[in-house]
Amino acid sequence: MSNFKLADRLAMLPPYLFAAIDKAKAEVAAQGMDIISLGIGDPDLPTPDFIIEALHEAAKKPVNHQYPSYIGMLAFRQAVADWYKERFNVDLNPNTEIVSLIGSKEGIAHFPLAFINPGDLAIVATPNYPVYPVATNFAGGRVKYFPLLEENDFLLDLDAIDEDTWREAKMIFVCYPNNPTAATATPEFYRKLVDKAREFNVIVVSDLAYSEIYYDPAKKPLSIMETPGAKDVAIEFHSLSKTYNMTGWRIGMAVGNPQLVAGLGKVKENVDSGIFQAVQEAAVAALRHGEPHAEKFRAIYKERRDVVSHALNKIGIRHRVPDASFYLWCNTPEGHTSSEFVTSVLKQTGVVLTPGNGFGKPGEGYFRISLTVNNDLLEEAVSRISKL
Ligand SMILES: *Cc1c(COP(=O)(O)O)cnc(C)c1O
I need a surface site. Which of 111, 145, 310, 353 has the fewest CB within 10 A? Predict the structure, then answer.
């Protein structure tokens, strides 16, 4: 049935690099070994009760049972604007500079459809969240990768991007705090990025999913929107998923340049019908009253980070102690590729790690640990690895 053959855009997806791990995981589970997964970036802690209560109340209102607007309730967009003002001292017009999203993944995935024509070029800083290149390809665009290197603290070296590429590129994707490397951006980095983007008329896509998972209040992650001139060139994606343990709720936002926000809105107008309004009301409660809870979650991640970092030091696994995100980006022991190491740890201990090369070539030689399980499991996991 040749008509049932997958379309080229799916057939040309890169090979699934976690396939070997999935196979090993199934084998290990079949042997009855208990598995500890440090592989998934999905918070294990529950959503705070007051947010669930807000959903419950909002779900009872018949007005919320009808189609929402694709752009999102004004109350939600206003809460986002107030939150950005409070957190970053950034002014956003809720009517023109904010659009609601069904999680930021949805927004990132649809954004290239609004601005990428077939053949257009996007720059992706890699190792990377897989959605950036896939979404670019779905829109018919091409991707050029530039590596995030340890010697640059995993900050993209903007000078390493040649002038022809800057001229040719339509957009550039960056993510700080970074998944998977856990690196954070500096004001100088964003200033230079915004300058380059203005000079060469390139759209900047900033993914800020992890801004609220930080460990030192003196080193809070930045929004690119804090940079003068950013609104001329940038759109920023954010969501409530990581901040308030709401990955299952599917609500996020894109903010920034009004033309970019409107373009994304136009795609969404044609493909979805917005977010359940009760979820939006709950999200308003989260944005307005969630900070004390976010504070508690940070304290929990910090304890976990320190437990794991201490244990890794004891067994001689080199890693960076992150300032933000709930990931540890670790060097594989001498003489092991990412896949070899991760597969052998899994087979011998039942501990699931994520191989760095799964996020792109420069991730080779690294593996990622996610701090989304409790201290006991983290300690048990590292203790098993130490016995190898
Ligand atoms: C988790 C994550 C997201 C967002 O997830 P949503 O739940 O769709 O908001 C976006 N970018 C990165 C890099 C992530 O890790």
Answer: 310
